[in-house]
Amino acid sequence: MQEHLKAATQRLGFLGTPLFLGFSDRPFPMMPWEGGMVRLSQELRLDGASVWYRVVGPGKRGLVLFAVEPRGA
């Protein structure tokens, strides 16, 4: 899983500052953020995992919240 975290952080970096929220067991996960819940609605596919993310914050380079969903065996 460490390789997925590293790859996701590198590939999402152009959108803003990546922040790992945890692992997911389903698509489009709802994750806690600032006292509420946020749906991670965008998908980035890696070998063996899906990375669900959402950019929050002002401007084009905000904070990129993401979670990793392992796929396959």
Shape: globular
Major sheet size, sense and barrel closure: 4 strands, mixed
Could you state the order of secondary-structure elements as H and E? HEEEEEE
Q: Roughly how many Å is the radius of gyration? A: 12 Å
What strand line-up does the widest sheet have?
1-6-5-4
Spans with pLDDT under 50 lasting ≥5 residues? none
Got a strand count? 6
Cα end-to-end separation: 12 Å
The fraction of residues assigned to DSSP E strands is: over 45%
Q: Helix/strand/pairing class, anyone?
A: alpha+beta
Helix content: 10-25%
Average of pLDDT? 92
Structure annotation, total helices: 1
Q: Which tags fit this structure?
A:
globular, 4-stranded mixed sheet, 73 residues, two-stranded antiparallel sheet, alpha+beta, 1 helix
Describe this structure in words.
Strand 2 and strand 3 (36-39) form a beta hairpin. The model has no long low-confidence stretch (mean pLDDT 92). The chain has one helix at residues 2-12, and strands at residues 16-23, 30-33, 36-39, 42-46, 49-56, 62-70. The protein is globular. A four-stranded mixed β-sheet has the order 1-6-5-4, covered by helices on one side. Strands 2-3 form a two-stranded antiparallel sheet. It starts with a helix and ends with a strand. By secondary structure, it is α+β, with helices and mostly antiparallel strands.
